[in-house]
Amino acid sequence: MIQLVRDAIRYHELIWALALKELKVRYKRSVLGFLWALLNPALLMLVLTAVFASIMKFPIPHYPVFLLCVLLPWTFFSQALAYGAESIVANGELIKKISLPKSVFPMAALVSNLINLLLSMIPLMLLVPILRHPFYVTWLYLPVPMLALAIFTLGAMFFFAAANVYYRDVSHILQIVLQAWFYITPVIFPLDFIPEKYRWIFKLNPLIYVVNGFRLAVYYGQLPHLQSIAASFVCAFLMLFIGYYLFRRHQNDFVFYV
Amino acid sequence: MTSSSMSKSRRIETAGAAVIHVDDVSQRFRVIHERPDTLRELFARFLRHNASYHDFDAVKNVSLDIPKGQMVGLIGRNGSGKSTLLKIIAGVYRPTKGSVQVTGSLAPLIELGAGFHSELTGRENIVLNGLLMGYSRQQMEDREDSIIEFSELGEFIDAPVKQYSSGMYSRLAFAVATEVDPDILLLDEILAVGDAPFRVKCLARIEAFRERGKTIVYVTHDMQQVRNYCDRAIFLDKGEVLADSEPEEAIRAYMTLWSPEAITTTARLSSTPV
To answer: Over 60: is that where the pLDDT of B274 sits?
Structure first.
């Protein structure tokens, strides 16, 4: 773990450059470029609001705010993980020719997706006053769940990136896993909507504490309990520990399989 | 490793302290005949119980010391382990057996333009490539102008490299790798590309490196270049060091083993019905 921090510091310029490269390539050849990072959530917001607030009539006031404050972090998680899982295989040619700590690639994927997340928060900030939803001071708390989410995501990236080197099926499996994961995360509805007897499934989800933090701060204007915050960080560091342990154990062999 | 080749490398070592120290290194590769790329294939293979692979040593029990300031040519046929040895020194492969110690900064030119991203411009790639080799952004920006000048790219430097011709591409790559002033330069047959004038420029730059006391390991099939530039040549065959000496002697060993007569004899022997 110390090694990871050391690599992150030593290669911070490279990680940053790789992250910017990724964003640049992602938005290259599109007329609107970086604006897509803002437009994407805005358009998604319109679609989902139309479906859930108007057609399905969820009895939740200011539903778009309720939804987006969790949907945006979720989108970050799933996109970052999909990118991160491919990051070693995608950089295979580089790994075969230059000696580098392999962890820079998942870290770069994390940074580029974090930038995307921050950009996508802008439409949400605009939406809050438009819907006359109160702008709570608790927004200031958001860096805390974001940090926990980033740590968790990085750990999951290490895990899937390493596994994907050996079996390319992993990235396909990951897509299914992410879909299922979405439905056991209270994104589109509050946890109260779930009948009591199924709620334990949701409670097994390590992301639930983080998600809860985002929603409490933005939508309810409250702070989560200390236990909930602690739980979110325990889950995050546990994931990082498992993922990085696996990654580090195998990273010197990646070059033979990419 | 025979004792005679060991004593040879010791004799050459006198020029200074070894900056590259390779100690009894072997690199084993597992050649999987039909690689199970997916779980389905893995299960199928598991059920049939036939793991079809063989192991081979691309580099076998190689020991060498390269002192500071020496220019060493690695010669041998295709597949003799030259590039693998270079990659082991560069730290791309961690050897299956043995150890490698490298003192000083290293610029591996295993392949020109490794790490270039086709969508980025030449200028952006200069920085990115430098960062990949472990230099700082500042160091690369300081050298940007001379890199652009050496690569003769002119205003193409702000075009994405995917629009470059292969010559432009390799000129930029060579310029980036050699402008950063590494202590050790690893070159893998890279001078085969580029037109004659640029090749002359590259060789002049390599020569300048040598004069400044840099260490160079050079893989090539051009024996004339080995004679002209290298202080020492190592002849690898099937992963083993068969000669490690002055260029002329190693080249002779290479030429004797793979002389036209020897090759025809081998061919005749192998085609003899058993």
So the answer is: no
